[in-house]
Fold this protein.
Amino acid sequence: MKDIINNVNSILGKLYSSIINDGFELLDKITGLNSKILNINTLKLFKDNIDSINAIVMCLIIGLFIFFILKYIISLYSDVYILSIYSLIIRTIVVAIICTNSIYICSTILDIHYELYQGTKKCLEEISKENIQYNFLKEDIKTLEDFFKSTNKIGLKGIKDSILCTYIIFLIVSFSCRYIVVILCIILSPLFLMFLISNKTIKYTLLWFKTFIIALFLETVNIIIIFIPITSNKDKELYPVILLGSMFIMYKVNKKIGDFTK
């Protein structure tokens, strides 16, 4: 029985070390997104076939235009209000131009986000005189190790390991999902921008825009949160509490915003 417990502890210890060593580094790799993300294989394929995608979207726009023209003709023989034919033509042309420039629009949003993210990060680094990144926290985890080793209370180390692993796994999953959401928003941008053509469908464009913006600018919020433990690492007594508290806040913020975009 003792051997089984030791084997389990050994496995859990290796799992914990692996998550701590690789988890924070992975978080740094999938943050700070800018227009360079368009060069990854998935989006590069999307860019290479953008003309075909725009052709399909144009067909859909023309189909919707014909539909609204028919509704307009029907409205002439009823009291139902419909958008004027001139407004419809202008709106269709504007939407067509926007859809064909979806890559440029997404690229601009990505670069604006990156400038804000980098500006906030550099400002925080000037204040703290420290390098603000997730991988930096990996070194500070040793402070937690020393803190729990210095206590004689049984089970504290196991509780600490469990809490840290849970939070880091959640953050990795959350950041990865956000990364995927950004890619999907870029790929589906021509389709969702097409919904601007009607007041009844514009809500889908607004949902796309809200999801895209929140998925990007959440990075800036997270970098502000990790600024707190990084600047508090000199206080060895309070740091373990501040680090765990900051990770809990990040967990709650990411979860809350994730629920908000649904």
